[in-house]
Amino acid sequence: MLLLKNQILIIASICIYKSFGQSSSGDGRGDQYKNPHFHPNHIGIVQMFQWPFDYIARECEEYLGPQGFGGVQVSPIFENSILDGRPWYELYQPISYKIKTRLGDEAQFRNMIKRCNKAGVRIYVDVILNHMARSGKGILHGTAGSIACPELSFYPAVPYTLLDFHLPCKINDWNDKKQMRKCRLFNLPDLNQAKPNVRNKLVQMLNNLISMGVAGFRVDASSFMDPIDLQHIFSKLNDLSTQHNFPESSKPFIYHEAHHWKSEYTHLGRVIEFNFEEIISRVMRNQINLNNADNFVRNYNLVESYNAVVDLDNHDAQRTFNYLNYKDPVPYKMGLGFLLGFSYGIPKLISSFDFKSFDESPPSDIKQNIIDPRPRKDGTCQVNWNCEHRYYSVREMLRFARIVEGEPVRNFFSNDYGQFGFCRGDKGFIAFNPSSRDMEIEMDVCVPPGTYCDIISGSYEAEIYKEFKGDTSDECSGNKIIVDENRKAVIKIPGNDSKKFIAFYQKP
Ligand code: LAG
Ligand code: CA
Predict the structure, then answer these.
(1) Ligand 1: does its nearest atom lie under 6 Å from the Cβ of 115?
(2) Percent of the chain with pLDDT over 70
(3) Is the Cα torsion angle 311, 316, 319, 320 positive or negative in sign?
(4) Residue 29's pLDDT is what?
(5) Given ligand 1 and candidates 20, 73, 84, 89, which is best to mutate, with the most ligand atoms within 8 Å of its CB?
(6) Any idea which ligand is nearest the CA of 222?
(7) With a threshold of 0.90, does the pTM exceed it?
(8) Phi/psi of residue 133, each to 5°?
(9) Sign of the CA dihedral 300, 305, 306, 312?
(10) Which residue has its alpha carbon closest to ligand 1 atom 22?
(11) 247-258 burial, b if ≥16 CB within 10 A, otherwise e?
(12) 8-state DSSP, 328
């Protein structure tokens, strides 16, 4: 005990006085990591940004599972450095691999995985393999009681020492691969994944999560790590846990945060296709027209569908780019409609909280505990939790996506005003009017003759009156669409419509 105290004292003094000022498939590649292991008839991932484990578990049971969501992406789970004002991004500054943060502890984490798996919802963890905590002067204090000294790159609770990190350097040129991978992202001490100790610690940490029943990982900051090192690490991962009912020989689902050199990571899982955010934001704001579906991947320089996890926004985009998010609800909901209604990659959406400034903490009480979002029946949540995953149109479009899954995009229509629509096989049809002009066009809608219900326009009544459990009743609260014997229908979306898109499908 005395020895430990002395050690801490020594570290503390070095820490305070010393600084580093001087230098300052589809194609068969990596297919094993590309399967998200969704339960049958479940689809899509929700990033439950900064949601504590207990509340995610409850939401899996009450909403995500029954509605058919495929999985949840959990915010980083490991002990982090406690920062002043508790900004959300302290979770991106780990100081050990103990599971204990404001999101909950290990027991709560295990409990969440069990309950979500049972409800048919997979858990993917946002893992930080690139760096350790940096913010703060001197000794850092963690959420599980550990300490660290970033100026010496000393993290005794792992343990990592100076030898486990790259020498400090600054990224001056974001096109220089070597700098990007070996220097410090945001001045965060940069782990050297070529070192055996680092590889072992990361493999151990990931395998531990696999043994607890997770289905995979979102890898933070992948472009800042060498794919060769990542390959070494992933090759040591265990199969998913058969004790948690994964089939024998299932590999974890892995998707990368790779803004740069994305094709270098597609043999190591999928990559998050970020180009989609800008394209669809501009389409729904009527700034560019989506002219055809066949060349979607080529025209916009996207990775192939089987290599993609795709989103419209996420916690970084919300704070950094002028793309669509909850602050712009009409085009945002259209964008989410497209994300779920089109057929590209694995769709991922965020469930976030309202914020005024970049750093803002998730909703928390005076003791700095995160407040329960406790969703209400009408789909809204407590305080400033946004609960985008509870939007009525998202719920309906998720059902659409499940019904048309595997059906190709067909009969794509578009015009010079930016209005467009398409079929999914002969099962469903969806159309958008981002413009302010009225749209009234006869189109091929592919579905058999009959009267169909627009699932989007019914939202007002449904939001107010309907229970948010299981399937909705048969009655149609939205507009009706009449399809003639040639499978044509008049698609009408006024320029000032409150939703600006419509969708309908054949009831299974
Ligand atoms: C990511 N993907 O690669 C995350 O999606 C992104 O949210 C993370 O940055 C980043 N990588 C590192 O994990 C976030 C914030 C940063 C924050 C960082 C560390 O966007 O702003 O940096 O997490 O907490 C903060 C300060 C910086 C400061 C740094 C170190 O904003 O100014 O240099 O801490 O003290
Ligand atoms: Ca790095």
Answers:
(1) no
(2) 91
(3) negative
(4) 82
(5) 89
(6) 1
(7) yes
(8) -65, 155
(9) positive
(10) 186
(11) eeebbbbbbbbb
(12) S
